[in-house]
Amino acid sequence: MNYSTFNTKLNTGFKLNKTALIAAFLAASASLISSPVFAADEIIVTAKGGQTLEDVLVTSHVLTREDIELSQAQDITQLLDSISGLSVRDSGGRGSVTSLFVRGTSNSQVIVLIDGVRVGSATLGSAALNSYPIEAIERIEVVKGPLSGIYGADAVGGVIQLFTKKGGEGRGSVRVTAGNDSLLEYGISLHQEGETFSFHISADAEETDGIDRTSILTGGNDDIDGFEETAYSLGGRWNVSDSTQVNLSVLYSDNTASFDNTFGNDVGDSSTTKTMSTALQVKSALSDSLTWTTVAGINEDETDTFSSFPSFFKTERDSLGTELALSINENNSLTIGADYYDENIVSTTNFPIDQRDNTGLFALLQSDLGAFSVLGSVRYDDNSAYGSDTNTSFALNYDFDEDVRLVLSYGTAFVAPSFNFLYFPFFGNADLLPEESESTEISLLGNSGGVDWRVSFYDTQVENLFSFDPATFLAANIGRAELRGMEIETTMLLGEWQVGASIDLLEATNRDTGVKLDDRAEHTVKLSAARDFEKLNVRLDVKGESNRFDLGGQELNGFVLFDLSARYKVNERISLMANMDNIFDRDYTVELIGFGERYLTQGRQTKISLRYAF
After folding, report:
1. Going by C-beta distance under 8 Å and a sequence separation of 6 or more, which residues neighbour residue 348?
2. CA–CA distances in Å: residue 537 to residues 12, 163, 495, 496, 609
3. Would 122 be classed as within a structural domain?
4. What is the pLDDT of residues 534-578, one digit of tens each?
């Protein structure tokens, strides 16, 4: 039995309701027969303990290099938008400020790791996922649910981990891509595999005229807002001995995006963002039953804004983590670990405090009791800025038979207040408490007639929400949120077609006011169908959503988007790829500005790519 979940990519514009979504899902799933399409031995590193996807007691998704290439996604956020329970909101096309929601939780409530190193801005409290070059990524793991019992602050909605390339077949490749809006992308990679080592080096560049980011037509804002980026990646792996392996990765990006001034005249406003992540991992098998892993990392996140109100913010986070994984016997394992990170900021804004550090200790126990499996974790964090916090998680599964599994889980988590919330002049509140959450989930998953399926119900209660207190004009812990939802997903073969489908139903509200939380769609359906015709692979993706709210409860119109992509392998060295997003050129809205204005979204987008391997 394969308990794995499926991977999809999707995008679409007309009004949908819950009945229509369910009907579409059932129509796509009816009368399908197949065999499982994912290998049960897929290892989930992010879940800790090196579990296989079949054994993970939390909801997990894996995107491989093949998935990433076939998706032809423009950036990482567009790729992640294909996964059930994940939703993306941008503010005007490529390079704009983009938010990713995981089961209704926001950017600041989800941890992002690159090769085990936490990344993101300490001033904003979140990672700019669309700034990391997708060409440098080998694999992506998404683990949904409260994981502060393992990873500490900000893991309310889950953890997203990017793994960079550290090798590859052949000696390298070159690629070039052209598309509308004067899009031009090009890149080169070099790699080598040896008996005891491998390495990967790549350089990529992108430039596009872009689109007008907002509907504002006054003050010079009726212009086209361009984007350009350069990115470099270095990765390597060295087997020092039969028992010890060293992994190194360096990922750097530098992009500049123009934007409209929503508060006045556009005087050529633009923002430059630079990110750099370095990870050094040493993994040693001390014995047949004991493995020791240590990761040291440096993350830098820098934003320089050129406008009527210029600003500069830079975060540097140095981290060190170590853990011991002990296989007690064939049915029980224990992982214990400790980690430390130090955050520093440099800014044109005069923060009264510009440094903080965090020390964490955690333990994770996993047991296989036959038809039952259990997982329990506990973690203690001590932060120099906001004090200490302890979080736990627990999961239990029961296998009714080889084809049906029930999973129950519960966990607590917390979100650390960012430097902006704590110390930004005339706004920050040094007495701010972390947001705290409790989450429960019930999942039933299995395989019926060759069709993999999963149904999950989840409920997350968040206390001490960060907000603005109009009485003091300062940040404060005001409000409570409730995030309740259901995910239904399946994958199967229909003839020669691999088909995937999912439905997400989400209710995200402010418990004190009853107002719908901004930017979360209540109903989302995602469908994908792909097929290989010898050298040709074709793929159709569809995404529909409705009941998205903004500006304190204002409902936006639903939409449906269709994307089409294809890859043709001319020979072993040459590949041609083409895709068209938003085939029917739908005009839709995902975010309002206010006063009748909105952020614009991209219409029909077409691009063609050529890749040569040598």
Report:
1. 310, 311, 312, 313
2. 22, 25, 15, 11, 14
3. yes
4. 999 999 999 999 999 999 889 999 999 999 999 999 999 999 999
Joined together, the tokens standing for residue 307 give 């406008």
Q: How far apart are CA 51 and CA 42, in angstroms?
A: 8
If one counts the domains in the chain, the total is 1
Q: What pLDDT, on the 0 to 100 scale, is given for residue 12? A: 29
Segment holding 435, helix H or strand E: strand 435-448
Mean pLDDT, rounded, for 369-392? 94
Q: What CA–CA distance (Å, rounded) separates 369 from 174?
A: 51
Q: Hey, what are 281's tokens?
A: 């991992």
Tokens of 44: 């989930």
d(CA 386, CA 326): 33
Phi, psi angles (nearest 5°) of residue 431: -95, 5
Predicted pLDDT of residue 597: 94
How far apart are the C-alpha atoms of 419 and 124, rounded to whole Å? 7
- Cα-to-chain-centroid distance, residue 188: 25
517 vs 178: CA distance, rounded Å = 38
pTM of the model: 0.91
Mean pLDDT of all residues belonging to the chain? 90
Residues 6+ apart with CB under 8 A from 404: 444, 445, 446
- Distance from C-alpha of 459 to C-alpha of 437, rounded to nearest angstrom: 10
CATH number of domain containing 345: 2.40.170.20
Separation in Å, CA 541 to CA 12, 499, 528, 600: 9, 10, 4, 22
CB distance 504 to 515 below 8 Å: no
Neighbours of 348 (CB within 10 A): 10
- SS3 of 600, please? coil
The full DSSP string for 4-36 is: PPP-----------HHHHHHHHHHHHTT-----
Q: What is the pLDDT of residues 35-94, one digit of tens each?
A: 233 334 567 787 776 666 666 677 889 999 999 999 999 899 999 999 999 999 988 888
134: helix, coil or strand? helix
Confirm if 210 and 94 have CB atoms less than 8 A apart: yes
- What's the number of CA atoms in the CB half-sphere (13 Å) around residue 97? 13
Q: What is the pLDDT of residue 432?
A: 94
Q: Which domain holds residue 292?
A: 18-165+237-580
Q: State the Cα–Cα distance between residues 586 and 597, nearest whole angstrom.
A: 18
Percent of the chain that is helix, strand, coil (3-state, to 5): 5, 60, 35
CB 543 within 8 A of CB 513: no
Q: Is 99 part of any domain?
A: yes
Amino acid at position 38, single letter: F
Q: Report the pLDDT value the prediction gives residue 19, as an integer from 0 to 100.
A: 40
User: What is the C-alpha separation between 184 and 277, in angstroms, rounded?
Assistant: 25
Please write the tens of the pLDDT for every residue from 117-143. Answer: 999 999 999 998 998 999 999 999 999
The C-alpha atoms of residue 242 and residue 246 are separated, in whole angstroms, by 12
Looking at residue 310, its amino acid is P
299 is a domain residue: yes
What tokens were used for 584?
């029917």
Residue 488 lies in a domain: yes
- pLDDT tens across 409-418, in order? 999 999 999 9
State residue 341's pLDDT score. 97
Amino acid identity at 199 = F
